[in-house]
Amino acid sequence: MKAKKLLAVLLSLVMCFALVACGDDAAKKDDAAKTDTQQTEEKKDDAAEPAAAGGNKVGIAMPTKSLERWNRDGSFLEEQFKSKGYEVKLTFSDNKIDQQVKDIEGLLADGVNLLVIAAIDGESLSQVLAQAKEQNVPVISYDRLIMQTDAISYYVSFDNYTVGKLQGEFVRDQLDLDNAAGPFNIEFTAGDPADNNAGFFFNGAYDTLKPYIEAGKLVVQSGQTAFDQVATQQWDTAKAMTRMQNILGSNYSDQQLDVALCSNDSTALGVTQAIASDYKGKNNVLVTGQDGDEANLQNIVDGKQTMTVYKAVANEAKVTLDLGVAILSGKNPGEELIKDSGWDFDCTYDTSSYDNGTGIIPSFLLVPTVVTKDNIKSELVDPGYYTLDDKGYAHPVG
Questions:
Q1: Under 8 Å CB-to-CB from 32, ≥6 apart: which residues?
Q2: Which of 8, 142, 271, 278 is 20–30 Å from 366 (CA)?
Q3: Which residues pair with 370 in a beta bridge?
């Protein structure tokens, strides 16, 4: 009897130990499962964080502070990258090529992991960008295509030929060239020969209007129709004004000027000043521009300039940010970047149009917008890019 009681006690103890052991094993499995889940979530969290979590640094080289648009570009880019946790080094080079080379050398010496460059002269950065390639620093050519270097990973800009095409189409439609007999007089003012975009702007406009020039509906009294003849060094307002004053004095003392097609707003500003001071005619001259600079938007409201082609810099910066994050994450983004982005603006991926002399540069191209007095509010103010004051003048936000 005692033996049976002892056996029962021993069996009870064995069962207790077994239950405890099972409980420990279950607890360990639960802990292991929780650990796996936690690790999975942590990995997801890490994946959601930008590459900046690893301490990546972005170098941004802008041409100058003397043009309003580059201040906006630099500010937007810096703000976008900082918002994702990146350390940002931003330089402006006062439109001096040697200074921009030194600035880029300084950014490389400072250990940047990515370069975003809007070049002053697209032909002058080959040597310093060879250093970037040696250091495995990817380069995004921003807004202006950098030429003659294989260090460029991507190009981000607006469809520059389309900018000029929109200007030409605006002139065509305003003058009703498909129906009007004409002739109408037109003069062209293009941009900086050192800026690769300037040729695209001019060609887009000239190609659109060339049939009407050949048909005699549009006449260039100065005879200046080649890009080299109408180019403006450094997009300089004073240079554009002086050239237009000479054209007006030589060709329009007894002729009516109907159109001054200017590739951008800084040149348009000089041309409108020349028209105000030196033009003898009484008609309103149709003046085109590009960029949406504050003074030019005021001129549009006042009737001194007719239109500008606006390029939403905030959107260009957003594309550059997402592209930069993808590059620093070890990806080679293409069309899928657009598909996965969720951008609320139009952008195309181009792998055929932009050859910088060493090969085709993959390009992300945004679509610009025509802005006139009638749609300043809907195109610039309502989206939040600008505000309006009591006089109806538009001012950039920030």
A1: none
A2: 271
A3: 309
* Residue 67 pLDDT level (bands cut at 50, 70, 90): confident
CA distances from 195 to 96, 123, 232 (A): 13, 9, 10
How many residues comprise the chain? 398
Q: Which residues contact 379 (CB under 8 A, 6 or more apart)?
A: 310, 369, 371
Gap between the Cα atoms of 309 and 265, Å rounded = 9
Measured from the Cβ of residue 139, the count of other Cβ atoms closer than 10 Å reads: 24
User: Distance between alpha carbon 184 and the CA centroid of its chain, in Å?
Assistant: 35
Q: pLDDT of 165-213, one tens digit each?
A: 999 999 999 999 999 999 999 999 999 999 999 999 999 999 999 999 9
Per-position b or e across 78-106, b if 16+ CB within 10 A of its CB:
bebbeebebbbbbbbbebebebbbebbee
Q: The tokens of 31 are what?
A: 């802990």
Cα–Cα distance measured from residue 106 to residue 121, given in angstroms and rounded to the nearest whole number = 18
| 371 has pLDDT over 80 | yes
pTM summary value = 0.81
